[in-house]
Design goal:
With about 160 residues, this protein is an alpha+beta fold. It has helices at about 10-35, 40-65, 140-160, and strands spanning about 5-10, 70, 75-80, 85, 90-95, 105-120, 125-130. It folds into two domains: about 10-65; about 70-160, PH-domain like (Roll).
Length: about 160
């Protein structure tokens, strides 16, 4: 098993605030639907469906943010063992201000497409893109992105000297 070089966890305060806001929104939608005065049935039904969906999403976020991301010399994975990306297939790391990335995080561009997955508040992967961040600790995500950048530079230098 490879040594873990860097980890990213959810910030406890951001996790609580994020999940509470989602749960509050879902509860408020259901409350509006159950109000005795005057909404049409279709609107009430829509509010209940939306409220339940947001509550389910809040629970998914609660479970997802209990995990952590781990960077080894070979892969970026979550604490369940799901591999987000192999270090060899990372083409670029983008943590710039205008990057399409999660809050407090960074974006990876991969050489090959992988299946879609989403852990709200922690990471998402869609095709050749992986976004890491959300309710994560900014210092940890910055350190991990710098480690990945350094690993990519080292890999390119090894490829240049070998070829």
């Amino acid at each position: 098993m490879s040594e873990i070089l860097s980890t990213v966890t959810a910030s406890a305060t951001r996790r609580v605030i994020g999940v509470a806001m989602m749960a509050g929104l879902g509860g408020f939608m259901i409350f509006l639907a159950l109000e005795p005065e005057g909404h049409a049935f279709a609107l009430r039904l829509g509010l209940v469906v939306f409220g339940v969906a947001v509550l389910v999403l809040a629970e998914k976020m609660r479970r997802a943010t209990a995990l952590r991301l781990e960077l080894t010399d070979a892969v970026l994975r979550d604490s369940t063992g799901r591999v987000l990306a192999s270090v060899d297939e990372i083409e670029a790391v983008d943590r710039g201000m205008f990057a399409l990335k999660p809050s407090n995080g960074f974006m990876l561009k991969l050489t090959t497409a992988r299946g879609a997955t989403w852990m709200p508040g922690l990471y998402w992967r869609l095709g050749r893109r992986v976004g890491v961040g959300g309710v994560t600790t900014p210092g940890q995500t910055k350190f991990m992105s710098e480690m990945l950048t350094a690993m990519m530079v080292e890999r390119r230098e090894d490829d240049d000297t070998a070829g």
